[in-house]
Amino acid sequence: MSVTPEDKIQTGFMRELEPVVAKELDRHLSMAREWFPHQYVPWGEGRDFDGPLEGEAWSLEQSKLSHEAREALIVNLLTEDNLPGYHHAIATVFGRDGAWGTWVNRWTAEENRHGIVIRDYLTVTRAVDPIALERARMHHMETGYEPTHGDSFLHGAAYVAFQELATRVSHRNTGRASGDPICEQMMTRVAADENLHMIFYRNLLAAALELAPNETMRAITDVVKSFEMPGAGIEGFLRKSVVIANAGIYDLRLHHDDVLTPVLRKWGVFDLTGLNADGERAREDLAAFLEHLDASATKFETRREERRARQAARRS
């Protein structure tokens, strides 16, 4: 198989950035706190289900969570469930050698804990229908995961920098929306991991921006404009995402203000000097898209408040 110029460029990026990966890996390991999923699950609430153990079948009234919190937790868990697909995608881009491979495996191990603890909590507390959840897991994993950025290193690194922060925000707000102190404590712990992952990827791409500013700027713009959460392939995702957005757990305003804006500000993309014509065009495209997204977020907020006002009027 022939090696393209793009392959050579990417190989060069990977080689020059490996010391950054090693440094960020050391930083991550020094900051990551060991924790155990079983300590965040109220096992005393558990009892047998119907089936071989002839326990009690699940019914909706057993759940103490709101509809919105249940939908958010299902999306969060099914997203975490697709970890094998994410591992394959990130290992394909980053490789399995040296500091790159060490990070990929460490990241995978940490992410796996998230699915373990959320599923155990949902099952023990009977928060969701376990049969429907398992069927949804099977469907989602059989569908698989195909990254929108392909095997481009710069696009992949840009994507995970935003995605990890988006996941942190979603997990944290889901915990708050649950109304259950145990769930909130659990989701806060999971979100803390996601924040450390975001810092790793954010710092990695900052180094890439110094190394290849024009190519990295284009990758950032492409990712921002086409961004979708990794759980977008979940069956019924659009309907669930509307419920989640209407509840204020994750919506366009949060995506713009709490995810895109702080990462872009940290990178200083709008203060960067020395870009060539291609880099400037990418930055202009990015600015135009952010302006459009901001307007769309404002429109959504206005309509949501109008809906809430109408609902409150009907209730009164």
UniProtKB/TrEMBL annotation:
Coiled coil: none annotated. Keywords: Fatty acid biosynthesis, Fatty acid metabolism, Iron, Lipid biosynthesis, Lipid metabolism, Metal-binding, Oxidoreductase. The keyword Lipid metabolism applies. Its cofactor is Fe(2+). InterPro entries: Fatty_acid_desaturase-2, Ferritin-like_SF, RNR-like. Pfam families: FA_desaturase_2 (PF03405). Belongs to the fatty acid desaturase type 2 family. Homodimer. This is Acyl-ACP desaturase. It comes from Actinomadura graeca.
